Amino acid sequence: MKTNDLILQFTAKIVFFIIFFFSIHIFFAGHYTPGGGFVGGLLTSSAIVLLVIAFDLKTVRTILPINYMYMTASGLILAFATAAYPIFDGKPFFTHYFDYFNLPLFGKTSLHTAALFDLGVFLVVVGVTMTIIQTIGEDE
C-alpha cells in the first residue's frame, strides 16, 4: 500500500534538479579538481533513486524511459574507443588530446578527449547503478 507522500514528492521534484545540475558541475569540474565521470554518475544515480523513493519504480520508468543496459553498453564503447583511438595514431593507449578553441559565451576554452572518456564512465556508472536499483526494486 502506497501512502500519500505529498511533501516528499514535492521536495523530491526540486531536489532532483539540484542534485542533477550539481552532478553536471562535478562532471565538468573533474578534469581540474576532484570529481569527474564516476562521482557525477553516482550523483545522477542518487537523484534518480530519490525519485524512485518519492514516487515508485513504475512512475519513474514512465518519466524516464531509459534502457540502462544500453546506456551501460554505450558508455563502455565510448570509454574504450576514446582510450584506444591513440593506438591507431601511433601513440600509447590512453593518450589524450586537447586544444584551445574560442567558443561563443565561453571565450578561449580547452577541450579534451578526457571529457569523452569521463562521459563514458558517467554513462557506465549511471547505467550499472540504476540497473542494480531497478533489479532490487522489482523483487517482491
TrEMBL record:
It is found in: Cell membrane. Its main location: membrane. It is a multi-pass membrane protein. This is Na(+)/H(+) antiporter subunit B. Keywords: Cell membrane, Membrane, Transmembrane, Transmembrane helix. Residues 7-131 form the Na+/H+ antiporter MnhB subunit-related protein domain. InterPro entries: CPA3_antiporter_subunitB, MnhB. PANTHER family: NA(+)/H(+) ANTIPORTER SUBUNIT B, NA(+)_H(+) ANTIPORTER SUBUNIT B. Belongs to the CPA3 antiporters (TC 2.A.63) subunit B family. The chain crosses the membrane at residues 12-32, 38-57, 69-88, 111-133.
